[in-house]
Amino acid sequence: MKATAFEKLLFALATDRGTAGDKYELIRLKLVSYFEWRHCPDAATLADQVFDRVAHRLEGGEQIRSSDIMTYFYGVAHNLLLEHWRSQQRLEKAIADRRSVESPVLAEREAELLKPKLDCLRKCLAELPADARSLVIRYHNDSGGGKAVNRSELARELGIPINALRIRVHRIKSQLRRCVEKCLSNAKPARNG
Amino acid sequence: MSSASKAETYRRYLLGDLNDEEKEEIEKDFFLDDECFGEMVGTEDDLIDAYLQQRLRPRDRQLFEQHFLAAEAGRLKLATTMVLAKAGAPSERKGGVTALAFAAALILVIINAGAWREIVVVKRQLQEFERRHAADVHTIDTLRKDLVKEMPRTASFALLPGLERTQGGGTLLLLPPDVDSLELWLTLRSNRFKQYSAALQSVEGRELWAERSLTSRSLEHRHAVVFQIPKQYLQPGTFVVELRASTPEGAAQIVDYFSLTLRRP
Q1: Which pLDDT band holds residue A188 (cuts at 50, 70, 90)?
Q2: Is A191 an 8 Å CB contact of chain B?
Q3: Which residues in chain B have their CB less than 8 angstroms from residue A125's CB?
Q4: How many CB atoms lie under 10 A from the CB of residue B263?
Q5: What angle, 0 to 180 degrees and rounded to 10, lies between the N-to-C axes of helices B58-66 and B99-113?
């Protein structure tokens, strides 16, 4: 994305740069979650593509009212999802024509990946900033009173609503997963042909 | 909509139990409303917790395994929660995730990845884990090590027939380290015979290993003959598998050739 397009995008989100940055982060988190919940394998890349498209249109002079911006993002994301599915169908058909049965390999890969996945998770957890690490661990802690009670207490302690806590933790876990994916791709041998 | 029915709708969304129109309605909600997004991620956390603590209703459990865990992101979220729950557990005997649930979840993740396929060995391991750990709770780390150690070291691959019998050709199979045997699912163009035999050959046609009296097994909408190759024959290189069938008259007939190139990471 060009710097000018990015500036226009931020300005469309909010006139104040700090607020715009926060909004950008939240929209990205929503986009990544959306694509993950729709089972797209590379959710982060698709989220970036949505930003690219919106920024490109803004730079091209399209006017989007700030009150409509989220509807606009959703529309672009949904169209991209449909495009992604169409290309996946073409890809799957091409693969099916060549090798129609490969699930046993996938099952084996999953078993193979189990140990590195857990190792990468631990490594990435250790690399998180201390406050973020402590927060996600406490969020998942269940020291007797139940997780719901613990989470409410944690939100109260931080002085934020429970939903804000959930989103904050979701963001950290999203970063953690990106780190694990990167770690696994560095550790993974070449794929089978 | 009450908050309980909202949470139930979000739950159904995450379990893939809504139609497209309902899904899109929820998605618009969470894009437009940060509160909805927060509730959605909270519902996801609760769903994963409930799965790990074996609190899901049977149908939801099935949907969780078939839909939520069908995506790599879902499997990674489950693993992340397990590791975080372990990291926060004050001692090995406390915490919401029991070692048995952890072991079961890990095994189910593996089963799910090939849910349609018969993974008898893994199912047996689950029973063994249940038997061994019913009265005892181990640390998650110990279980993980046990599980990885006891994981079947058979690499399974499916091959399509009709590949060229050439020196450079062959489906590339990357063998995991420490593999004990290779299981080849030789897919059939048609399932006309009752008995088959398979032989691993060098590209020059020298027979290295053979199995006889093999029968076909169903593999999705196809049939395949499962051919096991022991470790000592798993040397890097290109090989051919010749599949023969016994005709009703008792004669042997070549059914197909499969070529493969074995490599180790």
Answers
A1: low
A2: yes
A3: 83-84, 87
A4: 14
A5: 50
Q: Please classify residue A61 by burial: count the beta carbons closer than 10 Å to its beta carbon, then call 0-12 exposed, 13-18 middle and 19+ buried.
A: exposed
Q: Which residues, including other chains, have CB under 8 Å from residue B223's CB and lie 6 or more apart?
A: B187, B188, B191, B216, B217
User: According to the model, what pLDDT value does residue A91 have?
Assistant: 61
Tell me if ipTM is over 0.95: no
User: Are A180 and B76 an interchain contact pair (Cβ–Cβ within 8 Å)?
Assistant: yes
Cβ atoms of B72 and B66 within 8 Å: the answer is no
CA dist B172 and B161 (Å) reads: 14
Strand arrangement of the beta sheet that strand B222-230 belongs to:
B154-159, B181-187, B222-230, B216-219
Nearest chain A residue (CA) to B48: A140
Residue type, B40: M
The C-alpha atoms of residue B182 and residue B246 are separated, in whole angstroms, by 24
